[in-house]
Design goal:
402 residues, 1% strand, two-stranded antiparallel sheet, globular, 18 helices
């Protein structure tokens, strides 16, 4: 490897090591009404990744060229179709292609130790943000009845914060081989501080899948299922009789009741009303159908000032069958790879990600959570994170009581 590539890879590694710090500073700037320089920095990292993989893999220049040729076709189509929303259309699809480039780089250029250190550093930055948010700094997840609910720390995009947390949690529970009870409880507490219903539900799901697939004993698996069901029941009664008047609980109940309408009331409530946007977009699509729109989509459309925010539906209606095939092919490749490695935890997590994409949208191809999704979709079986918590606690106690 020549010196230029070594330098490029070092810069990329430092960028990934402090990746969430970039989002932290970007969130601070956005809250002050200043430009989001985070996207510029991340765009630079993706560009360097592209240089690195193109220089080392003979097949990758063809893949990268194909992606940019496809992007240029979309650019010409949108320019003539809807110039007003050209920027939004182009930016979103560019993020999709960027995530594919990030995945190719992470798969081939980063070692297990690199990924372990990157996740350690970013998890600490994430936790610091959430606790600072809980102390009154940064941004809130929601506002309800004049009160602030939940926190994103200094991060700005709520949906991306939720999915980033889920990715960090998955890696920690995967890599840490010791007893995880404290980890589980701590991350449940973090999900409560963030305050999104999707985050809290999916954190429970990730923890359950980690517990279930960490043992091969059928008896233990049954006990885990029974214990988990009992835990959910206990949480339900605890919320009903102890936390019912909590502002977060009241807001979730209000939003749930507000969205519980139509022929699919429960599903609509879980999806925060997103399911009602599909028939509206479908009517627009069918009323102006043409073969070229079938291929390239309608472009960016908002329903009541909101995008569709359900990844697979959005890819089809906004970017046509070509966009849908690209994202489906990516997921299918990841699922097949996890199945071949016989990595049940990773396999289930990809399915969880697909599920989350219906709840919050823009998860995989966000330039925040999507990067961590790429980092964890490789062979992780040799990664082992041993915190040695007891050893550190013993040292602290010795110093205090000496």
């Amino acid at each position: 490897m020549n010196k230029n590539l070594l330098y490029i890879n070092y810069v990329i590694y430092i960028g990934l090591l402090f990746y969430l710090l970039i989002d932290t500073f970007a969130g601070i700037l956005i809250s002050k009404g200043l430009p989001n320089i985070g996207l510029l920095v991340k765009g630079g990292l993706v560009f360097l990744m592209m240089i690195s993989i193109v220089a080392k893999k003979k097949s990758y220049p063809i893949i990268i060229s194909g992606l940019f040729f496809l992007l240029s076709l979309y650019a010409v189509y949108w320019y003539n179709l809807d110039f007003k929303n050209f920027g939004k259309c182009f930016t979103t699809l560019f993020k999709v292609f960027s995530i594919l480039i990030v995945y190719l780089y992470c798969k081939n250029e980063l070692t297990d130790d690199d990924i372990l250190v990157i996740f350690k550093a970013n998890y600490c930055i994430f936790v610091m943000n959430i606790f600072l948010g809980a102390l009154g700094f940064g941004n809130n997840s929601y506002k309800y009845n004049g009160e602030t609910v939940g926190t994103n720390g200094f991060f700005y995009a709520g949906n991306e914060v939720t999915y980033t947390f889920i990715c960090l949690l998955f890696f920690i529970t995967y890599a840490y081989k010791g007893r995880k009870t404290i980890f589980y409880l701590f991350n449940l507490f973090l999900s409560f501080l963030i305050g999104t219903k999707t985050g809290m539900l999916v954190v429970l799901l990730v923890i359950f899948s980690d517990m279930y697939f960490s043992t091969t004993s059928k008896m233990k698996k049954r006990m885990i299922v029974v214990s988990f069901i009992c835990f959910i029941i206990l949480i339900y009664f605890f919320i009903k009789f102890v936390l019912y008047n909590n502002i977060l609980v009241q807001m979730i109940i209000f939003k749930f009741n507000q969205s519980s309408k139509g022929s699919h009331s429960i599903l609509n409530a879980l999806l925060s009303g997103r399911i009602e946007r599909i028939p509206v977009v479908d009517d627009i699509y069918n009323s102006s159908w043409s073969f070229i729109k079938f291929l390239f989509g309608l472009g960016y459309i908002e329903i009541d000032k909101h995008p569709l925010e359900m990844d697979f539906f959005e890819m089809f209606y906004y970017y046509g069958i070509i966009g849908l095939v690209v994202i489906l092919s990516f997921y299918l490749y990841l699922i097949i790879s996890a199945y071949i490695r016989q990595d049940k935890k990773q396999f289930i997590f990809i399915l969880i990600t697909i599920l989350v994409s219906f709840f919050v949208g823009h998860v995989t191809y966000s330039v925040m959570g999507g990067v961590f999704f790429c980092l964890i979709n490789r062979n992780l079986k040799n990664i082992n994170w041993n915190l040695r918590i007891k050893k550190y606690i013993t040292k602290v106690c010795t110093l205090i009581f000496k």
